[in-house]
Amino acid sequence: MIPDEIKQCISKMFYEGYPYRLMHYILEKKKNFQISFQYLQHKVIPRLGLKRRNCRIDIDTAISLAVSEIQNGCNGCENLRRSLKIKYHLQITRSLSRELVRILDADGIERRKGRRLRRRKYISRGPNYVWHLDGYDKLKPFGICIHGCVDGFSRKIIWLQASITNKRPEVVADFFLKAVDNIKAFPSKIRCDPGTENGLTAAIQLTHTSDKKSVIYGSSVYNQRIERYWGWLRQSKSDFWINHFKCLEADGILNVSSQIHKLCLQFVYLPVIQKDLAELTVLWNSHNIRKQNQGDILSGIPDVLYHYPEVYGTSDFCIPADDITLNFFKDQCNHEANLFKKIDEDFEAVLIELRDNLNIPPVIDSVQNARHLFIYLKERMENLLS
């Protein structure tokens, strides 16, 4: 009898695209569940209704979900295929995904065409050897700032957070410490630009490692791992949000010079964008990096490369941290970080009351609903403050 927990684990790995051999390895070595590979592949997986090929799908359902995903900013045939697979357990072929995108998102295809930069070769010894930190400011004109971190070896996203600022040292350090607390360890090195926003994070890293080489400073354009991800984010989602906010401006709905408008936009859209970033993190961390003819990049799934480095002949380079050390660092910046990650409390309290009167949840389920709520809130606040 297979426990429900193991069944859920198998289903999760299946829909995230793990090969059968890797699924078997994880079950035996990491989950301590003994099962033969043949029994897993030919008995357990079919009994769970999991199929890689010849899956029967309702084409109307596929089209409906594809329309919804594309309207909410899903770009590209591979992103669409994997979104449907992971979020809805609906497996469509690559050819069908390409056809859906060609029909439903012709404008997006033209917009994404362009030349690609040739990038330098890069080598990282193993997971947690180097974390690459950087801020993303393409949405900053609208009051939305993103900060992220990528592991140099596995390309796994360590964090991806939307906030009202990514320039405060306390905020960046708070993201860093939460990631460190999650694995109870520090990376061997961090790479970031020499801006003041990274000063506190660098000080924490240097204090714990006692190694001046554990912080690598350099211009953002040379921070290759995270810059590569920002390019993918622009194609996958942020371009959609930029166009959405510019449409609000063009329609005379949004005035970015108005503090009321900007605060209302942050209140409505920050939870929506953070939800998108969480979904994109799952998509990225579970996608299969293809083998390259040139370069030193390992092929594989970022989550697998990060959590199971022994499969690739390397090991984890993290530096363990105890709770006393972590609590000491967190006490230094947590309170101030929370102050800089929120809009004005009095203004927010009024917006929450107005939103709750409409029985609308904190996280809006669609872009159009977010648009309607933003219009309603900014008009009400303008009337109240006029």
TrEMBL record:
Domain Integrase core intervals: 124-294
Entries under InterPro entries matching the protein: Integrase_dom_put, RNaseH-like_sf
PANTHER family named in the record: CLR5 DOMAIN-CONTAINING PROTEIN, EXPRESSED PROTEIN
Protein name in the entry: Integrase core domain-containing protein
Species this chain originates from: Mytilus galloprovincialis
